[in-house]
Amino acid sequence: MGSQSLRSGGNCKKPMKIVHIILTHSFAGSERYAVELANLQAEQQHDVTLILHQRGAEQRPNAIAHRVSPKVKVLLVGGFKLLAIYRTRRLLRQLKPDVAHAHLSAACRVLQGVKGLCLRVATLHIHYKKQQHAKLDALIAIAPWQLAAIPEPLRQHSVQLDNWSAARPANADARQRLRAEYQIPADAIVIGTLGRVEQSKGQDVLLDAFKQAAIPNSYLVIVGEGKNWQALREKAPAQVIMPGFSTTPQDWLACFDCFVSAARTEPFGLVFLEAMHAGLPIVATATEGAKYLRPLFNNELVGIDNAAHLAKRLQQQSQDLARRQYPMQRFEPSAKAAEVLAFYQQQLAAQRL
After folding, report:
1. Quick one: 1 exposed, middle or buried, by C-beta within 10 A (0-12, 13-18, 19+)?
2. What confidence score (pLDDT) does residue 14 get?
3. Nearest-CA neighbor of 34 among 121, 148, 136, 130?
4. pTM
5. How far is CA 143 from CA 8, 16, 124, 140, 267, in A?
6. What is the band of 5 on the pLDDT scale with cuts at 50, 70, 90?
7. For residues 223 and 2, what is the distance between their CA atoms, to the nearest angstrom?
8. Is 295 exposed, middle or buried (0-12, 13-18, 19+ CB in 10 A)?
9. What is the DSSP-derived secondary structure letter of residue 26?
10. Does 260 have pLDDT greater than 90?
């Protein structure tokens, strides 16, 4: 199916019964996609349930459940992975939805065990994986490069739909407040990044590049937490700020002068859309997601794991920190949610043939 237009879903006369499943514990890009899609579909008057692992409903800032709309029913399952998968399948059989939509590996395994119950859809948050996706009914790719790996005939039941992002205005005092709180001078150049602090995101390369670039009166801010946080903190000089997880990333984007992604892998890069909403110049490594979105931010991409090249780009970009205006219309959330619903309807119709 490729990326053909799907626009009728928001006008569906009969409400659909939809169940989203994501069994991870902490909020990141894939979790945001699942929650926002469930919220948008509920706003469009569909009957939407979100099944979470009970750890995703814990009382902590980076949990998942507190971000869900009251219009979405939330069901929790507990236990280790195999038990949580079993319990989720049991819930699905009770709910009898029109569509079950899986996000990430454990959720895909749930759907493998309920063939024939409903339309079983998964989003490729990373890439096609035979063991996760081959036995499902339909797939949504978030970037065109993912489609090539999907075998026939499943590719005929797949579509590419861009991720989405709504502008989230920063608090009016965010730039001044955060710089004062972290003792960053008002006239300093702040190079910033957002994301989980782990090997795939390349913050270690960014730290090396920042040191090599040696831009006068500059600070590096790494917003996020993860398994590599402590090791990175121990290597970082005083000019590197690492505030951990933030519930208001838009405030940090207002504090930045330049956004950087040094990722080793980035399937789409929702964070790019957030940086573009903030009008920031973008420096990025040549991941698949950055290559797809590069026409929008129109900057030379950096070789992956190449700290020297990244340092040079940081030096160049530090001379051009003017805010940009990016064309964001194609990432409008309600329109993208309508395209997902249209895809569901199309695939349900195909099943009835």
Report:
1. middle
2. 87
3. 121
4. 0.93
5. 21, 26, 9, 9, 7
6. low
7. 35
8. exposed
9. S
10. yes
Report which of 19, 96, 5, 61 is spatially closest to residue 246, judged by C-alpha positions: 61
Give the whole-number percent of the chain exceeding pLDDT 70: 96
First to last CA, the chain: 17
Placement of tokens 């006008």 in the chain: 11
CA separation for the pair 205, 314 (Å, rounded): 12
What are the φ/ψ torsions at residue 89 (nearest 5 degrees)? -60, -40
Which residue is it, tokens 């090396």? 208
pLDDT band at 4 (very low <50, low <70, confident <90, very high): very low
Residue 177 token pair:
């407040």
Domains, the chain, ordered by start: 9-164+332-352 (3.40.50.2000), 174-330 (3.40.50.2000)
- The residues with which 50 forms a beta bridge, in sequence order, are 20, 74
Q: Which residues contact 80 (CB under 8 A, 6 or more apart)?
A: none
**What DSSP character marks residue 285?**
B
* CA distance readout (Å), 341 to 145, 293, 309: 22, 24, 43
Statement: residue 64 has pLDDT above 60: yes
CA 88, 351, 33: angle at the middle one, nearest 5? 45
